[in-house]
Amino acid sequence: MSGRSVQNMQMQKQLTIGETSALCAVSVRMLRHWESMGLLHPTRDSNGYRLYSEDDIARIRRIRLYRDLGLTTDQIRAVLDGPATETLSLMREQRTRISEHITQLQLILQDINELSAYAHNTKEDENMDNPYANEAHDRWGDSPQWMEYAEYRTRTDDAQQQADLDAMQALELELAQAMRDGVKPGSEAANELALRHRESLTWYHVTPSMHVCLAKMYVNDSRFRAHYDSIEPGLATWLHDVIAAQVATEGVDAEHARWE
After folding, report:
1. What is the extent of the structural domain holding 237?
2. 105 and 68 share a domain?
3. Angle between helices 54-68 and 28-36 (to 10 degrees)
4. pLDDT tens across 42-73, in order?
5. Rounded distance, CA 4 to CA 7, Å?
6. pLDDT tens-place string over residues 120-142
7. Number of domain units in the chain
8. 118 and 49 both lie in a single domain
9. Distance, CA of 88 to CA of 90 (rounded, Å)
10. Percent of residues in the chain assigned helix, strand, coil, to nearest 5
11. Are residues 76 and 103 located together in one domain of the fold?
């Protein structure tokens, strides 16, 4: 039976909080929190257990969308219960904000790709007559990342650089296994993995803010996503969520993080 058929069967009756959590990929704790904030209004059965209707499920999906768009709880409540004109106004504001954010991410991606391309061409870059080396040096020569990378190249030999690469690849396999094991973003185990991932980026110092910017690239750039998802389907998104949750413990808002 197809997933759509199963879903349609589920939607023909009211769902328990556990069934709703599984269907909507929202934790039971979050459903209860949204209810306490006045965003959800499930009915109760004779024993006092929550029941969610088809309209409730649709509302949950709208809440998830608006939360992903960065709306506050008050804004989400206004959109859900307010007039259509208010919804349109907020959506226009969010579209403008997202467009600006995409532009910023594209600029960050361009810079990261250029520096990464330089790093992956180590043999050719040793010859300063190489046109790409000259171009990269002109662009990055005064940047902190370039200076840190140059120091890394100076203090490590080819064997150490290969060992660092091997360690990163081994960690990626460990990340994939953690995802398969059900490790949740924000958990102690996930936070430890996020810190180890940051430490594995040995070319230059990566701050928490820079780390979550990289995590966004893993999701938004098709090449990064293809790399991680080739290791384990869904790994790019999971790793992004793990990193975003960890940097939050260091006071970094993933939504507004900047490349430093």
Report:
1. 98-256
2. no
3. 90
4. 999 999 999 999 999 999 999 998 887 777 88
5. 5
6. 554 444 444 444 344 445 544 56
7. 2
8. no
9. 6
10. 75, 0, 25
11. no
